[in-house]
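User: Hi! I'm working on a homework problem where we have to compare a predicted structure to a textbook description. Could you give me the structure for the chain below?
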Amino acid sequence: MESFLDRVLSDAAAPARRSDDAQTGPARARRDDASPPGPSRAREGRRRPGDGAGGAPARAAAAGLPEPPAGAAAPRIAIYDTLTSPPRVVAVEEEDLPALVASLAEKTYNHCREQGGQVPYTVIQELIENLLHAYFRDVVVTILDNGQTLRISDHGPGVDDKERVFQPGFTTATPLHRQVIRGVGSGLPIARESLQFLRGLLTVEDNLGGGAVFTIRLPQRETAAPAAPPAAPVPKLTTRQKKVLVLLMELGTAGPTQVGREIGIAPSTAFRELGLLEEMGLIHSLGDGKRALREEGLRLLDTLV
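Assistant: Happy to help. Predicted structure tokens:
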């Protein structure tokens, strides 16, 4: 079946053939005879189609390349900053297909990098060039997972043999395609091998409603764990203060009078020691003059016993 691109190429070549046929005969022969060979004529033979007025679009039309999609049909890049928020959508339009391939690859790479992604530019370029086979029909490039997942979908003819498409040398590129890409069957195998060095995957699936979806997945980048807060310095306790802590662990709660009686010191001295231990954060007041151990005090006792 004749493809869209082949029809465009045939339509572009038909006027040129009719023009050549119309110029056959004596008039054309006289014109050829009247044009002596020389430098100026040689330069005309080397002139590229479309040089002069019209620029790149004229050259693309002369080469038989179709016009790139524009407006609502233009390729789009959807960037998901988070999975819970709607994506940022960027439309990409250019005046010819070679410029569209270059621009879409460059913008996709830049947006991936802005998200922290590590997908190599050469891999992105190979997959964007592959969209020529889909005639850039309904192209959507989706960037997910902080740039580590890249999904390129289209509504082209799709991929029948999803294993063979990654084999070196397999290509469906036509002469028209090769005006924009190499078309030697090395792009997708190189892309998959490059991703394997990064522990990544490249897969192809059928798209809903026809076409294909190529997906790149790289492992998520490991984020450094937050540094633990510095450990609090271990307070240096006197023998008497250690006795007070052990007593509070045994009794649960105690006031200055009981502490002084149990360890044989004056109540005023016991009151002062309890105040120092409270300042260290090892015990706390219950509001009725009594004190009790805090978690910090218990942990300290575990290291002392």
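For your comparison, note the following. The chain has a mean pLDDT of 79. The first helix runs from residue 4 to 22. Good luck with the assignment!
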